[in-house]
Amino acid sequence: MTREEIREGLAEILEEVAGVNPEEALEEKSFTDDLDVDSLSMVEVVVAAEERFEVKIPDDEVQNLKTVGDAVSFIETARA
Amino acid sequence: MTTGVNGTKVIGFGHYQPSKVLTNEDLAKMVDTNDEWIVSRVGIKERRIAEHESVADMATAAAEMALSKSGLTAEDIDIVVVATCSAIDRVPNVASTVAARLGVASPAAMDVNTACSGFSHAVAVADHAIRAGSATKAVVVGVEKLSDFTDWTDRSTAVLFGDGAGAVVLTGVEDGEEPGVGPVVWGSVPEMSTAVRITAEDPHIKQDGQSVFRWATTTLAPLARKTAEAADVKIEDVGAVVFHQANLRIIEGIAKRLGADNAVIAKDIVGSGNTSAASVPLALSKMIEAGEVPSGAPILLFAFGGGLTYAGQIIRCP
């Protein structure tokens, strides 16, 4: 799975969970500052991403995922 | 050798809430928050705060209403179980004070502390005692005054909690009558024991919000389903669901995963906030009083909270 495919998958999750426009869900965008994803929606995004990408994203790791790109990188590494 | 009965049933319900209302607008004057922020995150619009009432005052008021609805009198009661984590006095326990004020002569009287999941634990304790023949009629109360343990300068917790009480009266079923209280499904998550806490170092309620939210929204729906199965109730036959009123998003999230599509889902949190051990009996009593559940319908109670702990059971609407 390429970075772009992971990003597209995340964009779909963000749209479903938090109503984010998929065209806005670019790698450089911050979940909280740019996409208005609050802390509880972030948990919902993480849980959905775990199921979709078959990875584990521990609670301690969630706070380090500031941007869409951070999440893509974490998922890419976890799947490798 | 004492012999018990085949099961118990709920024959009375009651609740008490303080008259003082604290709205989101009121809170916005105390901490950096606003109505939109609070409603979108937790779904709470207002909560009740006990200015003059103690934990025992609220517990007694709820128990009096439940006793009155049951048609029994204090003399009939032989066990009082109170679920709470916010009673400040170590001794006497709240149950003894409630028994004294109600005029119950010589009951077994005990408090149960499993934080927000306390009421379903307390119902199980009373149900087991009656089924075993150790008691015959119970008053069970969930009561909380978390305003005494709230940090009113912390916007992440100050917006969440409220005060109140709820109660039920249980009695044994007749020979041949189906039990009106199903088997309890209960347990805990010891590795998350500090995720919700009120400790000696800082006696204010604190929680790891994201961890608790994740646990609640991912693990509780299957346990709630197991609770219905334990009572041989099909999920589509459940008439009402009363989850611990922790957060509207948790309630809606678990309800969606549970799939109890024909059930009324209690959303008392909107007007009462999170009242910890009081939230399930408070929401239950208000729901029954409003006529939202037909008599005899199965109601799924499922509570969860600090410990982390959880407990639930099916009860038949009185």
Automatic annotation (TrEMBL), chain A:
<dbReference type="GO" id="GO:0000036">
    <property type="term" value="F:acyl carrier activity"/>
</dbReference>
<dbReference type="InterPro" id="IPR009081">
    <property type="entry name" value="PP-bd_ACP"/>
</dbReference>
<dbReference type="GO" id="GO:0016020">
    <property type="term" value="C:membrane"/>
</dbReference>
<keyword id="KW-0275">Fatty acid biosynthesis</keyword>
<comment type="similarity">
    <text>Belongs to the acyl carrier protein (ACP) family.</text>
</comment>
<keyword id="KW-0597">Phosphoprotein</keyword>
<keyword id="KW-0444">Lipid biosynthesis</keyword>
<protein>
    <recommendedName>
        <fullName>Acyl carrier protein</fullName>
    </recommendedName>
</protein>
<feature type="domain" description="Carrier">
    <location>
        <begin position="4"/>
        <end position="79"/>
    </location>
</feature>
<keyword id="KW-0443">Lipid metabolism</keyword>
<keyword id="KW-0596">Phosphopantetheine</keyword>
<dbReference type="GO" id="GO:0005829">
    <property type="term" value="C:cytosol"/>
</dbReference>
<feature type="modified residue" description="O-(pantetheine 4'-phosphoryl)serine">
    <location>
        <position position="39"/>
    </location>
</feature>
<keyword id="KW-0276">Fatty acid metabolism</keyword>
<dbReference type="Pfam" id="PF00550">
    <property type="entry name" value="PP-binding"/>
</dbReference>
<comment type="pathway">
    <text>Lipid metabolism; fatty acid biosynthesis.</text>
</comment>
<keyword id="KW-0963">Cytoplasm</keyword>
<dbReference type="GO" id="GO:0009245">
    <property type="term" value="P:lipid A biosynthetic process"/>
</dbReference>
<dbReference type="GO" id="GO:0000035">
    <property type="term" value="F:acyl binding"/>
</dbReference>
<dbReference type="InterPro" id="IPR036736">
    <property type="entry name" value="ACP-like_sf"/>
</dbReference>
<dbReference type="InterPro" id="IPR003231">
    <property type="entry name" value="ACP"/>
</dbReference>
<comment type="function">
    <text>Carrier of the growing fatty acid chain in fatty acid biosynthesis.</text>
</comment>
UniProtKB/TrEMBL annotation, chain B:
<keyword id="KW-0012">Acyltransferase</keyword>
<feature type="active site">
    <location>
        <position position="116"/>
    </location>
</feature>
<dbReference type="GO" id="GO:0006633">
    <property type="term" value="P:fatty acid biosynthetic process"/>
</dbReference>
<protein>
    <recommendedName>
        <fullName>Beta-ketoacyl-[acyl-carrier-protein] synthase III</fullName>
        <ecNumber>2.3.1.180</ecNumber>
    </recommendedName>
</protein>
<keyword id="KW-0275">Fatty acid biosynthesis</keyword>
<comment type="similarity">
    <text>Belongs to the thiolase-like superfamily. FabH family.</text>
</comment>
<dbReference type="GO" id="GO:0004315">
    <property type="term" value="F:3-oxoacyl-[acyl-carrier-protein] synthase activity"/>
</dbReference>
<feature type="domain" description="Beta-ketoacyl-[acyl-carrier-protein] synthase III C-terminal">
    <location>
        <begin position="229"/>
        <end position="316"/>
    </location>
</feature>
<keyword id="KW-0444">Lipid biosynthesis</keyword>
<comment type="function">
    <text>Catalyzes the condensation reaction of fatty acid synthesis by the addition to an acyl acceptor of two carbons from malonyl-ACP. Catalyzes the first condensation reaction which initiates fatty acid synthesis and may therefore play a role in governing the total rate of fatty acid production. Possesses both acetoacetyl-ACP synthase and acetyl transacylase activities. Its substrate specificity determines the biosynthesis of branched-chain and/or straight-chain of fatty acids.</text>
</comment>
<comment type="pathway">
    <text>Lipid metabolism; fatty acid biosynthesis.</text>
</comment>
<dbReference type="GO" id="GO:0044550">
    <property type="term" value="P:secondary metabolite biosynthetic process"/>
</dbReference>
<dbReference type="GO" id="GO:0005737">
    <property type="term" value="C:cytoplasm"/>
</dbReference>
<comment type="subunit">
    <text>Homodimer.</text>
</comment>
<keyword id="KW-0808">Transferase</keyword>
<dbReference type="InterPro" id="IPR016039">
    <property type="entry name" value="Thiolase-like"/>
</dbReference>
<feature type="active site">
    <location>
        <position position="274"/>
    </location>
</feature>
<dbReference type="InterPro" id="IPR013751">
    <property type="entry name" value="ACP_syn_III_N"/>
</dbReference>
<keyword id="KW-0276">Fatty acid metabolism</keyword>
<dbReference type="Pfam" id="PF08545">
    <property type="entry name" value="ACP_syn_III"/>
</dbReference>
<dbReference type="Pfam" id="PF08541">
    <property type="entry name" value="ACP_syn_III_C"/>
</dbReference>
<feature type="region of interest" description="ACP-binding">
    <location>
        <begin position="245"/>
        <end position="249"/>
    </location>
</feature>
